[in-house]
Known about the structure:
Elements: H1 2-12, H2 16-105, H3 122-128, E1 130-131, E2 139-141, H4 148-155, H5 159-165, E3 179-181
Antiparallel strand pairs: 1-2, 2-3
Helix pairs in contact: 4-5
Amino acid sequence: MNVNMELGNQSRNPSVGTVVAIGAGAVALVLAAVALIMEKQTRTALEQIRAELETQKTATANAEQTAQRLASQANRAFQEVAQQIGILDQRLNAFATRLATLGSHLTAPRSNASLPPPSVAPSETASSGVTGPSGSGKTYTVESGDNFAKIAKKLNVSVDALQKANPDANPAKLRVGQKLNVP
Length: 183
């Protein structure tokens, strides 16, 4: 009977090995569950990374296509500009050739003595302030708003000639009523 009791007690009281085995099994199940959860999270993260890479790849491809399209457009524009410059260059060369041909047919007078002196019409003389006999002794009386350029235009002479005929006159400080020599 003792044997039966011992066997009965053993079946009711599990041995340490059995408890350890059950505990190890439980730990293994928990670790397996954790591993499955981590694997799922890892797969999800990898899918997100793959999707992001595809998006970046597509964006890069689109940017490359855009850059190539813009470069092609710029190249065409530069070619058109170069063509227009070539046309302008040809036209300028043709114009320069015509000018050179025209210039070779023109002759300049040999001296200024053969040219008639510039004259002032009588109506201009009265209204423009020019007095005195015709020739080198004429004078001009400065009027309000006059400057050397306006006076030279009225007298049909160059500004330089007017300044040379009046070396003491300061063009920046002309006074109304001031007398200027007419060249």
